[in-house]
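The instructor's notes for this session suggest beginning with a concrete chain rather than abstract definitions. Hand out the sequence below and ask the class to guess, before any prediction is shown, which regions might be ordered.
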Amino acid sequence: MLHTFRFLVLAGSLAAATPALAQSGGTKADPAMLAKIKDEGLNRSKVMETAFYLTDVSGPRLAGSEGLARANEWSRKQLADWGLTKANIEPWGTFGRGWNIDKSYLAMTAPYYHALIGAPKAWTPGTNGALKKRVMVVKAVSEADLDKYKGQLRDKIVLLDVANPPKPSFEPDARRHTDEALQKMAEYKPEAPTATPKPADPKADEQLKNRRAMFALRGKLLDMVQAEGAAAILSSRGGSDGTFFTSNGAPYAADAKPVLPEIEMAPEDLLRLIRLSEAGLPVEVEMETRTRFQDQDLKGYNVVAEIAGTDRKLKSEVVMLGAHIDSWHAATGATDNAAGVAVMMEAVRLLKAAGVQPRRTIRIALWGEEEQGLFGSRGYVKNHFADPATMKLLPAHEKLAAYFNLDNGAGKIRGIYAQGNEAAAPIFREWIAPMADMGATTVTLRNTGGTDHLAFDAVGLPGFQFIQDPLDYGTRTHHTNMDTYERLPADDLKQAAVVVASFVYQAAMRDQKLPRKPLPVAKADNR
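After discussion, reveal the predicted structure:
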């Protein structure tokens, strides 16, 4: 009954807002249709069912893996079953080798037995059977430190030092945006352009220099360990309480040079091995990993589908929404980014269930290979709209009305980043105003990065990312072994799907496409 009351309030609020909407650029959005979308999304949602198939059923969805292929095919079929047209798994270009885990086992066997938490590092080979070996700690802060390990590593399992040991935390893992934080976002004003370039930041330059030196040293360390004949590597990128973060993996190119088997671990387990070894105790580890490379098909893929436009003049224009469907492999990629995919799929389902007849075509895209560099969306934009390296525009560039993205975890939507598009911001404020009772209130001119809307923004297309409550995304789930279905709050995903569907519907019905920023200058690396 409460939900029924809320969607009737929405209808009244939207009806009152309609004249203002028309004055600011024109819209033919129907308040009753928006109320139907909300009612369907809050009372008959399928978003958690979709999330279940993307996570538990499909499994981890590393780029090029069998799990990603399962998720792509299931999503394509589901979109077609919901009545979308042109549902297709479309190649965007060449990616590299696929990789799958068939077995992973790790335990300390001396000075006593204890099971250890970890997973094979992506794109590393298997151990070719079980290994039971002594360990050796390797620590280096300079290249000169590597010399002392020469001649000592053959047939050893090497323990790499933990750069960020766990510390007690007195802050909650999960949080929501406060009213004050949202207000600060809303008040943000971009700096005015100036002819005088900003002075260099010595601190930032020094940090960048140190990071590059650290990566270079690590590369030399790994080369040395392999050249010395070590059997395998145990490492950790950090975490706490049994949670561990995964790295970017080993090279996945078809011609990548061989590397050693490696397991990324919970830091507490690796630190125990290091302490015991440094105390002079004989530490032995047993491990077995079975991994498979797939190099028959090196392409990467996106899943795309459409709701056809109905307006004779506008149906060739497109409103897009999307999220990346690939994940890392230590868990099932629930918050990164099955949550975003489930919400975007639910949004188009809501539009179909509500009987929307959009003026413009609505196209959903589920991007592949985002985690390695936004490859799916960048490949799609280059193939369909423009190459940022040349800024030579393809005909479809002029036809894109807007792109909406979701990829900041599983928290409810609190607003939208206008990405510096000052002309779009007032339109978004009017669209979001009736959603205040759902917790979505904020429009900010801030830019936000790290995900697929950047591919569109890089070629001057209006691409936007929604503001979401962070929950425990940065502390517990993002690229970790705890990114599972249990981290998905159903009410948050339902709310997000309704907000996305409402924005997409209004963009599809508006008389004009959303305003654009000036075209960027062509550059070879427009990231």
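Then share the key points. Residues 202-227 form the longest helix (26 residues). The chain is about 35% helix and 20% strand.
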